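Hey, resending since the last one bounced:
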Amino acid sequence: MTINTKKALLLIIDVQNDFCPGGALAVGEGDAVVQPLNLLAHAIAEKGGRTAATQDWHCFGHISFASSHDGKNPGDTIDTDFVKGQVLWPDHCVQGTKGADFHAGLDLNPITAIIRKGFNPHLDSYSAFFENDRCTITGLEGWMKQLGIETVIMGGIATDYCVFFSAMDCRKLGFKTIVISDAVRGVGFPEGSIENAVTVMKEEGIEFYSSKELLDILK
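The structure tokens again:
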């Protein structure tokens, strides 16, 4: 495989404190994605490619928070005006809080764009490209097309939610899509969700490579 790095984008998904150990919605070993993402971001920047990052950016009382609904607990689901089967989560990544900040170890210097998502109080957002109504765009696709991006290399949190939906949308929008196998971690809810997400992504033509393999390809 060859990659034209000048037409490649590294897309870092939600590497935020609340998704890392000690956070409000911590994913097991969430912070393990930081080092491979930093290495790839610098390698891509050196060869003229770009890096962007997404950031969950919820308001207090967001519709996806279990605390916003009487008698509901994290893991329950509800139907909203926009989405059927919305999963409810602990309060997390609230705008302006430490939990919403990027992990301190993530090098922000190579990042040229940050896409904040989930700020509509009535609508959650997993994908970097669309809100969960599957209609409202984030603007990322248009920015990428203006830059002539052809290949998206993706890592972050969580494999079975925001990485999954971002990768699936990226592929459907016509971009070559690669997931960094050692730079993703998953929630694992419900049971088997990580394995199922990986299977579906591969079936849709999304490729998986380790950071080492990608660094060798980018040389």
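The first strand starts at residue 8 and ends at 13.

Sorry for the duplicate.
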